[in-house]
Specification:
The protein has about 325 residues and is an alpha+beta fold. It has 3 domains: about 70 residues, no CATH class; about 160 residues, no CATH class; about 100 residues, Homeodomain-like (Arc Repressor Mutant, subunit A), CATH 1.10.10. It contains 16 helices and 5 strands. A 5-stranded mixed sheet has the order 1-2-5-3-4. α8 links the parallel β3 and β4. α2 packs parallel to α4 and α11 crosses α14. It is globular, with a radius of gyration of 22 Å.
Length: about 325
């Protein structure tokens, strides 16, 4: 197991929040904690952080006790195995967009008390995935809402094997006392006191191909919720910050150096100098994003080279073909053979 899963870094708040619903159903806190290998004396000790491994075991303990994947934190139960059935139903999809639509349809039918759906937003080229509890009265610590958001975001990243730069994650409640945890859990901007919970991503990410196999899914589910709770390594480099900013935009019209400088509150000159010190440049970062997106789209069914060329940001297919051969050593018609 990675060291990051053994290193305590999760707030103690999550011990009580995780068992609260099970306790309401009559489960004993001492038994739940001991089944997870967590000393009951740790409860309500803010200075005592916990590991991803410990929280994973505790959630599994609560799932067994409640027979409810919503952990007793919803007004309606979600039977154990529902999420696994949904992933099996969606795995054959070609793209992430198809998975998000099918998973929403599945859960809206299988589980009451959830409002899930994918739709256009009024923000330029962004789509909104609504993922909200219709009645959150039992989710007093917001744990279930947090977990649902994490589950869909990180499962999406796992399916396409890349960190998707979600532009904004929004919540239908005020910033909670443990809001510092949110900044580590969710990428991009955070918004509170919204009408519903959900997250925004650029529409081009909906075309990312699903690359996971049934065997990989079986491992993912066996270890669940370990992957969902695992926090990706944080990269504070300017390269990473610029790349994340660009990845949230359309590849057809990525922001200029002056626009990036304004967003990051830096001068264009200092950005260029710092990127050079890190061994890259704005041009290289833009090229890398286009190359990665193009190679992923090449494995997606029913997309012509002209379609991919346009989505990657080229006005002429011939220019894209030359660039693709320069990037990969092969023409699009030869890829991946």
């Amino acid at each position: 197991m990675p060291n990051s899963q053994r290193k305590p870094h999760i707030a103690n708040h999550y011990l009580q929040a995780t068992i609260r619903g099970a306790e309401r159903q009559g489960a004993q806190r001492e038994a739940l904690l001991k089944n997870a290998g967590i000393p009951p004396a740790w409860l309500n000790k803010p200075e005592q952080l916990i590991t991803e491994e410990q929280l994973t075991r505790l959630i599994k303990s609560v799932w067994r006790a409640t027979q409810d994947e919503f952990m007793g934190l919803s007004t309606r139960r979600c039977k154990n195995g529902t999420f696994a059935l949904m992933t099996d139903y969606c795995l054959g999809s070609a793209t992430l967009g198809a998975v998000l639509r099918k998973s929403a349809r599945f859960f809206n039918i299988a589980c009451d008390n959830v409002d899930i759906g994918l739709g256009q937003s009024n923000r330029n080229k962004l789509v909104f995935f609504c993922l909200s509890l219709e009645d959150a009265s039992q989710d007093t610590d917001h744990l279930l809402q947090e977990f649902l958001m994490l589950m869909w975001q990180r499962f999406s990243c796992w399916l396409v094997d890349q960190q998707i730069p979600f532009a904004t994650t929004q919540f239908s409640y005020p910033p909670p006392p443990h809001v510092a945890e949110y900044r580590a859990m969710y990428p991009g901007e955070l918004q509170f006191n919204q009408s519903v919970c959900g997250f925004y991503l650029h529409e081009r990410h909906l075309q990312l191909p699903i690359i996971r196999s049934e065997a990989e899914l079986a491992v993912f589910l066996k270890e669940a919720p370990a992957y969902i709770l695992h926090r990706p390594n944080h990269d504070d480099s300017l390269r990473s910050r610029v790349r994340t900013l660009l990845a949230q935009q359309s590849l057809k019209d990525m922001p200029s150096l002056d626009q990036i400088a304004q967003h990051l509150h830096m001068t264009p000159r200092s950005i260029g100098r710092k990127l050079q010190e890190e061994g890259t440049s704005l041009r290289n970062i833009k090229t890398s994003l286009r190359r990665e997106y193009a190679t992923k789209l090449m494995s997606t069914e029913n997309l012509s080279i002209a379609d991919i060329s346009e989505r990657v940001g080229f006005s002429e297919t011939a220019s894209f073909c030359r660039a693709f051969k320069r990037w990969t050593g092969k023409s699009p018609s030869q890829w991946p053979g």
